[in-house]
Every structure is written in C-alpha cells, then in structure tokens.
From TrEMBL:
Residues 1-225 form the FAD-binding PCMH-type domain. Keywords: FAD, Flavoprotein. It comes from the Bacteria. SMART domains: CO_deh_flav_C (SM01092). The keyword Cell membrane does not apply. Pfam families: CO_deh_flav_C, FAD_binding_5. InterPro entries: CO_DH_flav_C (IPR005107), CO_DH_flav_C_dom_sf (IPR036683), Diverse_Substr_Oxidored (IPR051312), FAD-bd_PCMH (IPR016166), FAD-bd_PCMH-like_sf (IPR036318), FAD-bd_PCMH_sub1 (IPR016167), FAD-bd_PCMH_sub2 (IPR016169), Mopterin_DH_FAD-bd (IPR002346). This is Xanthine dehydrogenase family protein subunit M. The keyword Flavoprotein applies. PROSITE patterns: FAD_PCMH (PS51387).
Length: 332
C-alpha cells in the first residue's frame, strides 16, 4: 500500500495554493473516474491529492450573455441534461450522451473530461512491460509497429501515436471554445486548440498548463449555427466505448448552400482535430452527400496509418460525411 496526503479545497484559489504547497507530486482530483483508474494501474502515483470535487461555484452553467459558460466541476450528466443546450447546441449534448456510461457521467466532470489521459493500450497496460514516451519520457513507443488498430492517423509523431480520447473536447473544438484556468500568477484563457498539445518530441506534456494551474471553466461563443449541429460517433460497441472515429459539425446554411462549416474530428488524431480542409471545401457549395464525402476525404489527405489502423482513413471520412448530412438536416 502506498500512502499519500489528501487535501480537500473549498475554492479554486485554495486548490492552487495547496498544489504549490505540496511541492511536486500533487494531482487534482475531481470525479476520480480517470485518475483513480490510473492510480490502480500504477501509471499515476501522486504523493498528494488535492480534491477539487466540491469547490464553491465550480459546477455553474451559465447561458446568459454572449458566451456559454461551463464550470469545470459541472457533471457531464448535468450538462447533458441541460434543456437549452440540448435545443440550441445538440453537438455539445450528443458529445456527452455518447461518452462513457450514465453511471460514469454522474461522477465525471466536464473539466476532468478535458484532462483525461489516453486509452492507448501500451500507455495503460505497459508499466514495466512496454516502453511508452507518454508514461516514461524517452523510453520509446511500443505502439509504433505494434498493435496499432486504435492509434491515431493525424497529428502523430515518431514519438507517439496515442489518440486523444475525449468526445466533449471535439465538440468544443468545432465551436471555438476557450479554457479558463487559474494559477499562482492569476487567471488566463487558452483557446481550445492551443490547450491540447501535439505530441511532437514530448508526448508526456499533453496540455498547455503550467504546473499547478487548475481548469476553472470552459467558455463557448454563442452562435445561431449551434442548432444545425451534431456529434456523430462510430465505436466498436454502441452501449459505451471510445470513438474509432467521430465528427462534430456545426453548419450555417442558406437553403441547401453551406455558408460556413465548423468541423472537428475525434478518435483519429492525437488531439481534437480541426478539419479546416473540409470547412474550406464546403463553403459556398450546394450540399450533396457526394460533396460532403469529397470534403471529408480532403481532411484525411495528410493521414498516416500503421499496419492495422489504415481503415480509419475511410471510416473517418465516411463518419464526417454522415455527420455533415445529419447537421444539414436539422432546422436552424
Ligand atoms: C469505462 C469508461 C468508459 C469511458 N468512455 C468514455 C467515452 O466514450 N468518451 C469520453 O469522452 N470519455 C470516456 N471515459 C472517460 C471519462 O469521461 C473520464 O474519466 C471523465 O470525464 C474524467 O472526469 P473526472 O471528473 O472523473 O476526472 P478525474 O479522474 O478526477 O481527473 C482526470 C484528470 O484530470 C485532472 N483534472 C480534473 N479536473 C481538473 C481541473 N479542474 N483542473 C485541472 N486538472 C483537472 C486530474 O488531475 C486528472 O489528471 C470513460 C471512462 C471509463 C472508466
């Protein structure tokens, strides 16, 4: 048995101070559905847990003003059941209802969902068996040339091909969300695409956070296009499983012509992936399934597959094309 210190914080500022006082080896814990799992697997071994599960005001969801605001401590289940979000931003609701199970969503927070670690087989099952640059920097990557069916095909590097696991961050990426954080130097806001780092040569540094910074919330600029949106997810098992391929699509249409498209991909990349090529190809087009598929394929032109995950290129494109047609079929 390993002993550890435990502090329950009452405010975000108190949590940041407790993290700093702990002097290294500390971790924030919220719903615990990912961190406790990793502690049991021996992947995370914190010396100090800072419990942020009941911070004052941390579960606030606010739809007034020009931005939607989701406190980092809001439960996935509560946000999934929010009637106004469901009506005006189905892409957000669906990214939550298709993530994990009801029991997990009752525990897990939207902030923790952003920060969950990859499900890469070699990352999770490998301590003492397989090398993993994310787990042990510089040790190598057993997934490259190994069982790579679940691995990423976009945004990979010679050091890491692990998929970014969350569904919610993909929907947030399509909506140009920003992550609100607090550290010892005060608050700051990080655009969502910058929040998630590409693996490059340092896959163990996954987020653009300084040590001790806490996520306090997520803000999403409001858009009329939100109603014409969807999160479409393909997985091995419909009841609950991580994405093999997914797409978040937000469309602005004039009749059958696409005025603008905001698109992000999940299950195929090392971070939530903005599909700019598809966005550009769709703009101004009268929409047909054929055109949606051509645009979707353009976003996979730079994909690079290993031995067993080449199927994700076509699956990803077809998933995106279907998502575009689902979103287009919704009324604004
Ligand atoms: C069987 C199973 C199936 C799942 N399927 C899916 C799925 O299909 N799709 C999906 O998206 N997810 C899935 N998940 C993952 C689940 O959604 C995450 O475990 C959950 O969202 C994490 O939230 P949490 O509050 O429990 O985080 P915790 O476990 O408490 O924390 C996770 C990480 O985030 C850090 N952290 C948490 N909150 C903050 C904060 N405010 N600021 C800074 N750091 C923070 C912690 O230090 C830790 O490193 C699944 C999980 C399981 C166990």
């Amino acid at each position: 048995m390993r002993s550890l210190n435990y502090t329950r914080a009452r405010t975000a500022a108190e949590a940041v101070q407790a993290f700093t006082n702990a002097g290294g080896g500390a971790r924030y814990i919220s719903g615990g559905t990912n961190l406790y799992d990793l502690m049991k697997l021996g992947i995370e071994q914190p010396a100090h847990l800072i419990d942020i599960g009941s911070l004052e005001g941390a579960s606030r969801v606010d739809t007034r003003g020009d931005y939607l605001f989701f406190g980092a401590g809001a439960l996935m289940a509560d946000v999934a059941e929010h009637a106004e979000i469901r009506r005006d931003y189905p892409v957000l609701t669906e990214s939550l209802t298709k993530a994990a199970s009801q029991q997990l969503r009752n525990m897990a927070t939207v902030g923790g969902n952003l920060m969950q670690r990859t499900r890469c087989l070699y990352f999770r099952n490998g301590p003492g068996i397989y090398p993993c640059n994310k787990r042990e920097p510089g040790s190598g990557c057993a997934a490259i040339g190994g069982l790579d069916r679940g691995q990423a095909i976009l945004g990979t590097s010679p050091a890491c091909t692990a998929v970014s696991p969350g569904d919610w961050p993909v929907a947030l990426t399509a909506l140009d969300a920003a992550v609100e954080v607090l550290g010892m130097n005060g608050p700051r806001t990080i655009p969502i695409l910058e929040f998630f780092r590409l693996p490059e040569s340092a896959p163990h540094i996954e987020f653009a956070l300084s040590p001790g910074e806490i996520v306090t919330g997520i803000s999403v600029p409001k858009t009329q296009a939100g109603r014409r949106s969807t999160y479409h997810k393909v997985r091995d098992r419909e009841s609950f499983a991580f994405a093999l391929a997914s797409a978040a699509v937000v469309l602005s249409m004039d009749g059958d012509r696409v005025e603008s498209a905001h698109i992000a991909l999940g299950g195929v990349a090392t971070r939530p992936w903005r599909a700019r090529e598809a966005e550009v190809q769709l703009k101004g087009q009268s929409l047909t399934h054929e055109r949606a598929l051509a645009a979707a394929r353009a976003s996979f032109a730079g994909a690079s597959a290993g031995q067993h995950n080449g199927f994700k290129i076509e699956l990803g494109a077809r998933t995106l094309a279907d998502a575009i047609m689902i979103a287009a079929g919704r009324s604004a």
